[in-house]
């Protein structure tokens, strides 16, 4: 093959590659279709926002009503750890949300907050309070995926961060205060006897 034909082939290959690169660049710069949530997705997203505020507020209120100052301190450490880890990861990883609204998808802050609250309540006061709180936290995690605010792995990571923080910083109230509950009866009335130390 002579030099002229070779140069012509090279020029054609370069031209095709440049044309392909410009075409791919044009396709990549086209805006993605805007996500329009359904009314069900909007409703679920709003309910998850409400629960993400109400659940930790209820945990705080219960702790204050009991005047459980040690529990308040443990709850504060739990909240700081869960919130801090979530924010650091959100601003470090910058994963795009499924609804394309921003780049703060991973991990789910709503899941971290609600699972931290649920695990705090369960660890500190038992399953009587923790069970319903975990049910609400699970709904929030599902709702964030359903409303296209997060991918499933975002809510799993958020739940692990929240619950893990509570398990690290929260100690059971009953064990700490030697809580003892037993049935009591005088032959006419029946009830329960409870005692604990401060």
Can you give a write-up of this model?
This protein is mainly alpha-helical. It has one domain. 70% of the residues lie in helices and 6% in strands. The protein contains 7 helices and 2 strands. A two-stranded antiparallel ribbon has the order 1-2. β1 (180-185) and β2 form a beta hairpin. α2 (39-65) runs antiparallel to α5 (127-146) and α3 (69-93) runs antiparallel to α6.
Write the layout of secondary structure elements.
Elements: H1 3-29, H2 39-65, H3 69-93, H4 109-125, H5 127-146, H6 152-169, H7 173-176, E1 180-185, E2 190-195
Antiparallel strand pairs: 1-2
Helix pairs in contact: 2-4, 2-5, 3-4, 3-6, 4-5, 4-6, 5-6
What keyword list fits this structure?
single chain; 198 residues; mainly alpha; two-stranded antiparallel sheet
User: Quick one: overall form?
Assistant: elongated
Spatial order of strands in the largest sheet? 1-2
Give the ordered list of helices and strands. HHHHHHHEE
Oligomer: single chain
Short description:
By secondary structure, this protein is mainly α. Helix content is 70%, strand content 6%.
């Amino acid at each position: 093959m002579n030099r002229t034909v070779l140069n012509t082939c090279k020029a054609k290959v370069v031209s095709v590659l440049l044309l392909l690169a410009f075409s791919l660049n044009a396709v990549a710069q086209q805006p993605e279709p805007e996500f329009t949530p359904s009314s069900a997705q909007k409703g679920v997203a709003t309910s998850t926002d409400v629960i993400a505020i109400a659940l930790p507020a209820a945990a705080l209120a219960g702790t204050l009503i009991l005047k459980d100052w040690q529990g308040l301190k443990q709850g504060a450490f739990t909240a700081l750890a869960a919130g801090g880890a979530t924010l650091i990861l959100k601003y470090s990883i910058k994963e795009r949300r499924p609804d394309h609204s921003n780049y703060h998808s991973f991990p789910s802050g709503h899941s971290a907050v609600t699972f931290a609250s649920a695990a705090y309540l369960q660890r500190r006061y038992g399953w009587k309070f923790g069970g319903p709180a975990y049910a609400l936290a699970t709904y929030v995690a599902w709702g964030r995926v359903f409303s296209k605010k997060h991918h499933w792995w975002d809510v799993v990571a958020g739940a692990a961060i929240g619950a893990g923080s509570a398990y690290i910083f929260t100690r059971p109230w009953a064990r700490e205060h030697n809580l003892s509950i037993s049935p009591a009866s005088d032959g006419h009335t029946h009830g329960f006897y409870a005692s604990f130390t401060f």
